[in-house]
Amino acid sequence: MTTNTLVTTPRYILPIILGALFFASCQEEKPTTPRQPNVIIILADDQGWGDLSIHGNKDISTPYLDQLARGGASFDRFYVQPVCSPTRAELLTGRYHLRAGVRGTSAGGERIDLDEALISEVFHDNGYRTACFGKWHSGGQHPYHPNSRGFDEYYGFTSGHWGHYFNPSLDHNGSMVKGQGFLPDDLTDHAMSFIDSKKSEDPLFVFLAYNTPHSPMQVPDEYWERHKDKVIQGAPRDTVSQNHTRAALAMVENLDYNVGRLMDQLEQQGQLENTIILYLTDNGPNGIRWNGNMKGRKGSTDEGGVRSPLFINWKNQISQGLKIPQISSVLDIAPTLVDLCNLTPTKSISYDGNSLSTLLLEQESVWPERHIVHYWRDKISVRTQQYKLDHQEKLYDMVSDPSQQLDISRSDTATLAYLKSLKDDWKKEVLAELSYEDIRKFPIGHKQNTWDHLPARDGIPHGNIKRSNRYPNDSYFTNWTSPNDSITWDLDVLASGTYDISIHYTAGPSQVGAKLQLSIGDASLALVIDEVHDPPLIGKEHDRIHRIESYVKDFKELSVGQIYLEKGQHLAVLKALNIVGSSAIDVNRISFLRV
């Protein structure tokens, strides 16, 4: 495995530095330092490599993304991990996600270890103004929240997926607010506003993490109308599969529109020449659709599950139409940006990725032989420039057989043995780092924050209570039918003090009068549900196909009272003292305000 620690000054910077030094020697005033470039990383959610017209998909039109690719570098064989949070961890750290403690997509398994140096923190420490807009999926409470991981500004949702894309409830720097319009449009609006509201000459780092085309399959009518009657290539002919793919492609066309808006703004403001723009996706497609005849999709360690587009545009620095055939990885992005922006990390970082700066700037260099490992749910694949060892230890020549049709493990035993040894070494070095300590303890009371939210996603139901959906990321608790039922959250109180506590609930007329009790350690608070709040479920009216995730609804906040909590680990228990009617309330989350 090739590891890079810190970085060297890129060759293109040297003439600028030398020119500045010469100017300083001729002038009495203090010399100016060349301004570092802005950086914008755009990450799509569940978009496949094949969901672009530039890659040959005849059922979609993505002119702005195609222009982004043609205007800079495009990577022929670029890889991510099979699902969302592992890819995000590797993007942010430059290290395999298991080293960073990420082993799942919910229940605390998505959180990046606090001793990891995120690229956002490196940019922030080097004087950049930083912002994240969209899907975070790397920890919901401080110190895992984006505002504690190097981002000055955050607007989006920290969960693994969201249940509604039109005017949804969102997190703005730790406070819950109401979104405006279709979520990808809203996220782009906030990113453009952040770029436009420059209060200083400090460079900007923006992470724009879109939520689409991840389900639920919601998209504005103008995009749906262009696709609703198409017979889509690569998808089964049944109506559900066709509509899923139609919606996914329509959602990608909306992303294309938003990327175009962002590019137009940068050009109009004269910032395009000093902005590095990256575009990629977090895993393979979330459905059966055309993907270059590759095997596998989201969740698979086969080629189709892990190959992603990567376009990097830097006007007048990266050649237009540059094609990069060398295999590369999301692990490479952090060390590449450190190089290109001439950043100085405040601590040594042992990157698993390689800096791609010499390839991007077309500097003479010997590119090392390398391999990339993909892992999800104990399935491991190993990719070299020519070969792939899949999770069943079948061997494929990916140059002559990119669709993984012919297993050559019996005829090429030498390559098989070599790749198996790489896999074994990775398991001993990387997989062995994964800690199996309890990850379900959720922090409150961090010094950088006053509000903490513990959603149903992070709680545990007991008795008859169940989640509104088996996917926990955007769910609520329901079916509370017995006084013996309860909900618990494992707390890690980071600071002793008094906390205002509220509960977010819905209750029908027959549930008014229910008495509940919240206990944390030896302290407890009682509350009575004295107001009807029974809104309808939201989402179905905008879905293009029947969803697999939970529908959502508007929850009402009810103050429970104040409680003093000692620093340390505690169990929060919410139970019913009595139930009026057939069931108690539905619960979305409990919130803590540090007084």
Notes on the structure:
By secondary structure, the chain is α+β, with helices and mostly antiparallel strands. The chain folds into 3 domains: 13-219 and 249-368, Alkaline Phosphatase, subunit A, CATH 3.40.720.10; 373-433, no CATH class; 442-594, Jelly Rolls (Sandwich), CATH 2.60.120. The protein is built from 11 helices and 29 strands. The strands form 6 sheets. Strands 7-6-5-4-8-1-9-11-2-12 form a 10-stranded mixed sheet, sandwiched between helices. Strands 18, 20, 23, 25, 26 and 28 form a 6-stranded mixed sheet that branches. Strands 14-15-16-17 form a 4-stranded antiparallel sheet, with helices on one face. Helix 5 runs parallel beside helix 7. The longest helix is centred in the middle third of the chain and has 30 residues, at 239-268. The protein is globular and about 70 Å long. The model is unreliable at 1-33 (pLDDT under 50).
